[in-house]
Amino acid sequence: MVVMGNPPYSVSSSNKGEWIQKLIKDYKKDLNERKINLDDDYIKFIRYGQHYIEKNGEGILAYISNNSFIDGITHRQMRKSLLESFDTIYILDLHGNSKKKEVCPDGSKDENVFDIMQGVSINIFVKRKNGLPRPKGLAVTNDTVIANKVKQSTKKLADLYHYDLYGKREFKYEFLSENNLKSIKWNKLEYSEPNYFFVSRNYASEEKYIDGFSINNIFINSNSGIQTKNDNLTISTDINSLKMVVYDFINLDEDSIKQKYKTKDTSGWSVKNAKHDLINNAGAIYKINYRPFDERYIYMTEKSGGFVGRPRISTMKHFFQNNNYGLITVRQQSTFNFQHILVTDTIMESGAISLQTKEWGYIYPLYLYPDENSLETKRTPNLNLEIVAEIEKKLGLTFVSEKDTGE
Fold first, then answer.
1. Strand, helix or coil at 330?
2. Which of 123, 75, 117 is nearest to 99 (CA)?
3. Distances (CA, A) of 348 to 33, 226, 334, 364
4. CA separation for the pair 44, 27 (Å, rounded)
5. Max CA pair span of the chain
6. 284 burial type by CB count under 10 A (0-12 exposed, 13-18 middle, 19+ buried)
7. How many CA atoms within 13 Å lie on the side-chain side of 5?
8. Terminus of the chain with fewer CB atoms < 10 Å: N or C?
């Protein structure tokens, strides 16, 4: 059995049938992520092909597709599932991601093989009948094979081969026309849990890195940035314009709002919900980090969802009326023109540090403030005190939650 093709790419997939939704759950199992971007059509098509080849007992799945799954953090269970299902996997990474501003290793221009912004890869997944040997005779280089000691599953996972193809479009076409599976000098990759990356990684210092602590562990409360789902209406550079929008949403009917602002309902946001939120909940205008070094204004209510699609109230409320600072960074960095770390004293939008989907900004408040009805009156550090104690011990210093003002 051979399943092959160029599946459609669509993050907001309309293929929501019960059958494929149930299958795709295998890729989402035990991720423990606040947001999981695994409903793209191309991912569903990979799961579709995997299902039928598993059912058949042998076969080949060969797609040219969006390449975000080969190194995305939230795609780790997807990669693990593919490694468990197949015997051999080949990833020919064609790069060409203009969103990442990808270039060749020597700095020259890298182009996409299609007229799209998203990078692509040719992916060949091979499953053999039980007992058949794995292939020999491939042109394999061990230059990027790194023997890491991370424990793997007891189940035999697939052999993983990878090749990077950079350059202009015509060069890539010529390379693909002149080569085949056996002539390409594949790099056999070692992978490790929990991420099982389908790209080359330098694991030389991984053991030392793992000895450290994650930023998610040292900070108790954190969240990704706000997603308004309608920036043009809910965020503004002018306070008075924003006030007028709020006034109109409260006083005009839905059809008049849509006509005046030429807006329509989208996934995660509707005029009806926005209007209901503004009428029924108290709110205020706040400064917001919208893009790197681009501060604007936003109207936020005290409730979750409505005028702002995803306001992340549980974290952002600690910046509303308080003197606070927050660390902004990303979970995964795919562009390297600058290090993705900023500090803010306001709330933030998810694109405050980068517009790359993989580089959504996360904010880590320095302090947590008590709710209005709480018996507590003092703010507390948003820190895991067990880790703080370890740092105190190693540095020989004493941690204080507030600076001594001498009063």
1. strand
2. 117
3. 20, 6, 20, 11
4. 10
5. 78
6. exposed
7. 9
8. C
226, exposed or middle or buried, with CB in 10 Å at 0-12, 13-18, 19+?
buried
* Residue found by looking up tokens 């399943």 in the block: 3
Strands 361-365 and 223-224, bridge-based pairing? antiparallel
CA–centroid distance for 178 within its chain: 35
Instruction: State the Rg of the chain over Cα.
Output: 25
- With b for 16 or more beta-carbon neighbours within 10 A and e for fewer, the 365-403 pattern comes to bbbbbeeeeeeeeebebbbeeeeeeeeeeeeeeeeeeee
Q: What DSSP designation does 208 have?
A: H
Contacts of 189 (CB under 8 A, 6+ apart): 144, 145, 160, 161, 162, 197, 198, 199, 200, 201
CA distance 84 to 97: 28
Sign of CA dihedral 349, 353, 356, 361: negative
Identify the H or E element spanning 95.
Answer: strand 88-95
Q: pLDDT per position in the chain (407 positions), as tens?
A: 999 999 998 877 888 899 999 999 999 998 877 667 789 999 999 999 999 999 999 999 999 999 999 998 899 999 999 999 999 999 999 999 987 788 899 989 999 999 999 999 999 999 998 756 666 667 766 544 433 433 344 468 999 999 999 999 999 999 999 999 999 999 999 888 889 999 987 666 666 767 778 888 999 999 999 999 999 999 999 999 999 999 999 999 999 999 999 998 888 899 999 999 999 999 999 999 999 889 999 999 988 789 999 999 999 999 997 799 999 998 777 665 566 889 999 999 999 988 776 688 999 999 999 987 888 888 999 999 999 999 999 999 999 988 876 55
User: Do you find a cis peptide bond into 194, omega within 30 degrees of 0?
Assistant: yes
Q: Which helix (H) or strand (E) holds 273?
A: helix 271-280
- What is the pTM for the complete model shown? 0.64
Q: In terms of Cα–Cα distance, which of 250, 358, 233 is closest to 298?
A: 233
Go through 56-93 and write b for each residue having 16 or more CB atoms within 10 A of its CB, e for each that does not.
eeebbbbbbbbbbbbbbebbbbbbbbbbebbbbbbbbb
DSSP-derived letter for residue 289 is: E
